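new request in #modeling-help
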Amino acid sequence: MFTRPGAGEIPVTVKGMDTKTCPYEIKLAGERWQIDYFGFYLSDPQVRIDGKWQRIKFETTPWQTPDIALLKFHANCQGANATNTSLKLVATKELMKRSTAFRFTLGLPFAENHANPLTQPSPLNDSSMFWSWQDGHKFLRMDLRQKQNLEHTFSYHLGSIGCTSDSAVRPPAKSCTFTNRVNVILPATQLDFDLALEVSLPHLIMQTKLMESEGCMFEAPDAGVCGRLMKNLQSRPWINWD
Amino acid sequence: MRPIDEKSAESTVDKLGLTASTALVLTGWLLTACQPQSTPYRFSLPENVPLPVIPADNPITEEKVNLGRKLFYDTSLSANQSQSCASCHQQPFAFAEPAMHATGSTGEKVPRNTMALVNVAYNSAFTWAHNGFSHIEQQLMIPLFNESPVELGITGSEEIILQRLSTPEYRSLFESAFASNKPTLDGVVKALASFVRSITSFNSPFDQYAYQGDDTAMTSQQIQGMNLFFSERTECFHCHGGLNFSQSSTHEGQSLILQPFHNTGLYNEDGEGAYPESDQGLLRITHRGEDMGKFRAPTLRNIAVSAPYMHDGSLATLEDVIEFYAQGGRGEGKGNPYKSPFIKGFQLNEDEKKALEAFLKSLTDDTFLTDPDYGPP
C-alpha cells in the first residue's frame, strides 16, 4: 500500500520519466533519451504565511543539511540505486496548510558553495556534484544520451562562473561574475498540505536544439544554449506542483 | 540489554560467593586471556583529511596491520612460493609495477595492469571493473584464490600454505591479532586487508598546497596545470574528482556512495563499441550491453611513478595519456558509442600540456613511496 508521506515531506518526480529501464529514459524533442545523471541542489526553503516569508529547515539526512538539499533522479545501473526524490521539511501540517507559497533557491549559498569539500557534511561532499573550490559545486547536473544515437550526448552543468581566486583549489573572496543561482517561487493553494512537486524537462530544455547541441557546461549564461537554459530556469515552469 | 547482563553477572557473583572486587579482577583476567590485543590502529592523516570507512567485521588494529604487512611481503602465500603480494605491488611504483600487465606465480599472464595501492581504504569500488565489491576483503579473494589466471594460486594448496604459516613467529602474530595462534585463511584476508588499508598518501606537494594552505608547495607551472585539470576545457575532474582523484571514493563523512565506471574510447573493434574479447570491462560482470568497455577511474595520486597506464597498460607515459584524452580517444575508439560524454577531446598548446603533466607530477608523495612502515618488515 502507498503510504502518504508526513506533512513536511514533498515527493518530487520527473514528469514522463520511464523508470522501468536502466538507465531511466524520457522522450524529449521527439526522441528517446537515457538519463545518465540528473540532480540539483536546493537551498534556503521558505514558506509564505500571512503575507510574510518565513524560513523553514530541512531535516538532517544524508541528502539534506538544515539549509540545503540534494535531489537525484537517475538510476545507478551498476549498483544499488542512490536516488533522492523527496524534500523533507521540518514543518507541521498546520504550517503547510497556512502557507500561500513556497520558495527556494536552485543552487548553494556562497559560503557552502566554496568551502573545503573534504570537511563538509553530506550531501555537500558528493564529489560528482563538485567542481573546484574556486567555482564550487554544480548546482544542477543533467547528462542525457540519445537512445538511437548513443554517441550524441547533451549535458547541462550549472554553477557559478567567473569566480576569481589564486587557483582552482582556493576559494574566491567575493561573489562570482555569474552566480547562476535561480530563485523559484511556487504559489500554493491554501489548505493543501498534501504536496508533491514535478520537474518538467521539456520546459527546462525548451528551444535548446537538443539534437545538435552538446549542451552547456559552466559557460557564461548570456548567450547560446547556456543563455536559453538559464532563461528557461528563470521563467518557465520547469518545476511545479503536481 | 546491558542492565540484564549486569544483573545476571551480579547473581553469578552472589552464587559463587565472591566479592565484587575479586570478580572484577577475575573478569579482567578472563578478558585478557580471550581477547586479541586490539590496539586500535591510528591513521596518521593531515588534520583536514577525513577517516576512511572501516567495515564493522574487521576493525583495524596495530596487530592486524603488523601481521598483514608480514604476509604481504611473504612468498609463502603463493602455492609455489615464488610470489608475494609485493611481487606485483611494489612500493617504489606506488605499489603498482612497471609492466603492461601482471604475471601470476605460475607465469600465467594476468590481462590487466597492476593497480596502484594508494588510499585503497577510501575506495568505494575495487579492481579495474567490478561493481560487486564494497570491501578490500572481497577483492583480495581474486589475487589469492583465482584459478584463471592463477595469481598467488592458493586454491588447492590451502593446507600447505597454512602449515607454512605455523611458525612460532606467525603463531605469535596471529595470537596477537586474532586471539588464536592457529593461522586461518580468514585471518590472512583480514590482516592483509588491514595492512592495505593502512597504506595512505596525503603528503604530495598538491596536498601541501590545497589542504595545508602552503602557497609555495607547488610551482607556478603545476598550478597552471591544476587549473587546467579542474577546467571544463579538459574535463579531467569529472571522473578523477574527490579526495582520492577517483570518483569511486568515499570516506567517513560521506554518506552517498559513488561507484562510476567509464568507457574512455580506447577501442572500438566492430564499429559498434566492442572492446577486445580479452577484456571488455564491467560488461563481463554485469552482462549489460551499456557496460561495454567501462572501467573504474583509478586514483591519480602518485600517478607519475605507476606507468604504464590504462587497464591494459597500453599507454606508456603521462604524455601519451594526455595526448590520448586530447584526441578524445584512440583511433576507432574515438567513436565508441559507450564513451563517456566528458571525453570529447581538447585543445591545449604544448606549454599547457606540459603544465598538465607537471600538475600530475605534483601528486607524487615521496614520503609515501619511501615510508618504511609500508616496506618489508
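bot summary: Chain B is about 35% helix and 0% strand.
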